[in-house]
User: Fold this.
Amino acid sequence: MNIVLILPEKAYQSFVHGEVWGEDIDSLGIKKAIESLEGYNCEILTSNIINYLNGINRLEEKNFSVAIHFDWPSVLIEKCKNILFFQQYYEDVLLQRAWTDFKNFDLVITNSYNISKKHKDILYFPLAVDTELFSVGKKIESLKSDVVFIGNTKMRDDESYEQYLKPATKFDLKIYGNGWDKEAFNFYKPYYEGIISIEEMVKVYQSTNIVLCIHNKAYIEKYGLITNRVFQALSTGKVLVSDFHPAMIEMFPNEKGVIYTKGHEHTEQILEELLNDPEKRMKIAQQGRNEVLKNHTWLNRLDPVFKKIGRQ
Assistant:
């Protein structure tokens, strides 16, 4: 079976453009999982590439059986099962506009817990992780830290950073991602280490003691979205300290890889306790990794999708 993953243009080989898109990381993990199955092949393309191949009459020879579209709107492929992986929740209007087009896809999947609960015909497809890539490894001296935070500045408000990130500055903190070199974030510049590739991200996780996770408040409240960094950090065998997230707690109850914080002094207290108790830290982290290995790989996610469309 030939499967194609169709990405947004900017997500395709995104590090070339100076940033790492989650869709880029996720598509590579999904491709690897698909190709681990006997008789399955997978390509990663974009709508522009699909249009180009179609224009020169070369698309049909690809013989795609399934197309998973990571972007909307997208180009439907004829004689193919078209699956929309809708995850564009950064503007409410996008969901409203896309809604009428959902019927044109053979299946719609989403990483929104709340949307899948409201609409039974939409399959819940939470993010996951390539556990071979995001694996346990030795710490690299130059990357060592007490706490690490990876993420761009625009996805959260200043209040969230004040509540969850600022307390971590009391420790050996390293920050990676876009936007932290801007004047508005001068307070965090001493902790900023730049933008990193996927491979570097793995090493950064492996070299820290604790990973800090801060979600976009609207994403939690409206959509129940869980960032892929949750699965990535836990897969590397690290304990995660996270803001409160109902959908995430269903997956990872408190101290099963994750400790949930109310922010401010509570965050500082949790970080200090974990750093002073390596045995407890490792025990919690191992429980999280075990849970990821058992239930949160890309093969776990793909199985119900293939069942829905009929594995060929």
